[in-house]
Design goal:
By secondary structure, the protein is α+β, with helices and mostly antiparallel strands. It folds into 2 domains: 3-153, Aminopeptidase (3-Layer(aba) Sandwich), CATH 3.40.630.30; 162-271, Gcn5-related N-acetyltransferase (GNAT) (Aminopeptidase), CATH 3.40.630.30. The chain is 31% helix and 33% strand. The protein has helices at 24-35, 50-60, 64-67, 109-123, 138-146, 184-193, 201-209, 254-268, 283-292, and strands at 3-7, 12-18, 68-72, 78-85, 92-100, 128-134, 150-160, 174-178, 213-220, 223-231, 237-245, 273-278, 295-306. A 13-stranded mixed β-sheet has the order 1-2-3-4-5-6-13-7-12-11-10-9-8, with helices on both faces. A hairpin with a 5-residue loop joins strand 3 and strand 4. Helix 1 (24-35) crosses helix 2 (50-60) and helix 6 crosses helix 7. The protein is elongated, with a radius of gyration of 21 Å. 38% of the residues are buried. Mean pLDDT is 91; it is low at 1-12.
């Protein structure tokens, strides 16, 4: 697939094309650069290294060549990117929002990348696209809104850059451990009680066996009362994916203590930071995470559009 854009005072031409493996270093550098500033921030991509780029696609079982578009600048270097992240065959995808190198901005390349990505999304059978844009990224928000995306909610992206603070005293008889296959049914029951996206028992067993996940559980008097699932496909930066606590034990510190237990293990294994998304309306959880050492790194607008 080849698409071309012409514009700017010199009528320069830029090419939008599928990703190639040798693009990875330049794209990771571009992603890391945009993540540093409030005015450039997008939730995806958040790669800091080539390994993180490839690991993210490998983790989701899809090909970057099919889901990622790259724009070449006049000088031959990478000028920008856009694309999608999804599970194989899913009709719902996260958008890699267009990001453009500073030297290439002002010529409409972000819009061309977004149009090309949406066209590619239709070919891939994607029906619903979700994007995350930092609230101070006014240009990015305007670009998405102008292409039919509508705001649906906000999230805090929270970040922890050291081992979590020690939790206070736990409830009596609460014990933490790493989940084993025998815990799958109990974790799935609580997972479903919390209303997370559907999973089968086989899928839960696969998660527990997946080296790119880490799941820990809490038991009280032999009953599974909480679980935490981490995504560890980025070795240096761990994502807190799911936290579930029995309804009768919520708001009593069990969940945040279990998160701390899970993250402490990962920091000891070499992780340097942890990330999570949370609704600003969930004030109890916000306070608990902040008490553990997380800080509010970015506030993100989440937008959606059907294809």
């Amino acid at each position: 697939m080849s698409l071309y854009w012409a514009g700017g005072p010199k009528e320069s031409r830029m090419r939008v094309r599928p990703f190639r493996p040798d693009d990875a270093g330049a794209l990771a550098a571009l992603s890391a650069s945009c993540a540093k500033g409030q005015s450039d921030f997008v939730l995806n991509p958040l790669w800091e290294t080539e390994d993180e780029l490839f690991a993210e696609f490998q983790r989701n079982g899809i090909s970057p060549e099919d889901h990622l578009l790259v724009a070449d600048g006049d000088s031959g270097g990478v000028a920008g990117l856009a694309g999608f992240l999804r599970r194989p065959g899913s009709q719902v995808a996260g958008l890699y929002a267009p990001i453009v190198a500073r030297a290439e901005r002002g010529h409409g390349l972000g819009g061309e990348l977004l149009r090309a990505a949406l066209t590619q999304g239709e070919k891939l059978g994607i029906k619903l696209v979700t994007a995350g844009i930092g609230v101070r990224n006014h240009a990015g928000y305007a670009l998405l809104a102008g292409m039919g995306f509508r705001p649906v909610r906000q999230h805090f992206l929270m970040r922890l850059d050291r081992k979590p603070n020690a939790a206070g005293p736990l409830l009596r008889d609460v014990k933490f451990s790493v989940a084993n296959p025998e815990a799958a049914a109990g974790v799935l029951e609580l997972y479903e009680e919390c209303g997370f996206e559907p999973r089968s028992l086989d899928a839960m067993l696969a998660v527990l066996a997946d080296p790119h996940h880490a799941t820990v559980v809490a038991y009280q008097s032999g009953r599974l009362v909480a679980f935490v699932e981490l995504e560890t496909h980025w070795v240096r930066r761990v994502w807190v994916a799911y936290v579930g606590v029995r309804s009768d034990l919520r708001d009593r510190g069990v969940g945040s203590a279990l998160v701390g237990f899970a993250l402490e293990r990962e920091f000891e294994r070499g992780a340097e930071s942890a990330l999570l998304l949370i609704s600003p309306a969930n004030r109890t959880a916000l306070r608990a995470y902040e008490k553990s050492g997380f800080r509010r790194h970015r506030l993100v607008d989440v937008l959606e559009r059907g294809l």
